[in-house]
Design goal:
By secondary structure, the protein is an alpha/beta fold. The protein has a single domain, classed as Metallo-beta-lactamase, Chain A (4-Layer Sandwich). Helices cover 30% and strands 23% of the residues. The chain has eight helices and 14 strands. The strands form two sheets. The chain has a seven-stranded mixed beta sheet. Strands 8-9-10-11-13-14-12 form a seven-stranded mixed beta sheet, with no helix packed on it. Strand 6, helix 5 and strand 7 form a beta-alpha-beta unit. The two termini are 26 Å apart. Bound molecules: fe (ii) ion (2 copies). One fe (ii) ion binds next to loops. The site of one fe (ii) ion has 4 residues, from loops.
Length: 265
């Protein structure tokens, strides 16, 4: 099945019970203390969909996954925590791979609350979700026990008015969604450069029906440089390897890479 057909058919399944062909496995890695990466590789797209679980007194899941992945991911999460114990379900922007299975998770975890940007809460989530979201700004602090999170709004970065990135201050982990997207069934974590593979991926996206993936605006460099000033030690990447090491330079270089990908196309 062609990649686009796969994505559309998996999103059309109204029950969220069918797992698309070939999706039988979730690979789980602890990429930082108490931070687990649950990865589903979709061969038809040559792309990973990564979900992140922070195991703390109040467990937090970043990315719900597509509805069609929910049965698979629920089983994977159950190897780490009791899914009913989830308390916070967060993501960057309103899209099916980010938050499509939100209501399925809210049903299995009665104390869980959606967590997104304030814009996301206002423009989409509170209408879609079976429970209201906590709409965060950079001033708000979310503590889960040992860990402390802030949501930094990043409108249209990677895309979507409501986009934001979550930053955990104790371990300096930036949950950066589609930023640094690259293709392949990549290792869970790397310290190698991510900007080159990201540039290649953006170039490839621009050649197909999903062109326009990552816009570049006058605000793009300023937002990415501000995220670099947070001095992240880990980048939790949604599609591809996560990154371990001083990541400020990568965020500074990413702005130029996004601009270049648009110039090249
Ligand atoms: Fe996205
Ligand atoms: Fe994504």
């Amino acid at each position: 099945m062609a990649p686009l057909e796969w994505l559309l058919s998996s999103q059309r399944d109204p029950r969220g019970e069918a797992t698309p062909d070939g999706l039988t496995m979730v690979t789980i890695d602890e990429i930082a203390p108490s931070l687990f990466r649950l990865s589903v590789y979709v061969p038809e797209m040559d792309m990973q969909f990564n979900h992140f679980l922070v195991r703390d007194e109040e467990p937090l899941l970043f990315h719900t996954g597509l509805k069609s992945m929910f049965p698979l991911l629920r089983e994977a999460v159950a190897t780490l925590i009791e899914p009913a114990a989830l308390r916070h379900i967060a993501w960057s922007h309103f899209e099916s791979d980010e938050c499509g299975a939100l209501n399925e998770w809210l049903q299995v975890a009665p104390q869980a609350q959606p967590v997104c940007t304030l814009v996301g809460k206002i423009v989409s989530v509170d209408d879609f979700s079976i429970r209201p979201a906590r709409g965060m700004t950079a001033e708000d602090l979310l503590t889960t026990g040992q860990y402390r999170f802030r949501f930094y709004p990043s409108p249209h970065i990677p895309h979507g008015w409501d986009a934001g990135v979550l930053f955990e201050e104790s371990c300096r982990t930036l949950f950066c969604s589609d930023l640094f997207h690259h293709f392949g069934n990549a290792p869970a974590i790397t310290s190698a450069d991510l900007v080159g593979p990201t540039l290649e991926a953006m170039h490839k996206m621009e050649q197909g029906p999903l062109a326009g993936y990552m816009p570049y605006t006058r605000r793009t460099p300023g937002v990415l440089h501000a995220l670099g000033q947070l001095q992240p030690a880990t980048l939790a990447v949604m599609h591809g390897s996560s990154y371990e090491g001083p990541a400020a330079g990568l965020l500074h270089d990413l702005a130029a890479a996004i601009e270049e990908s648009i110039d090249r196309s």
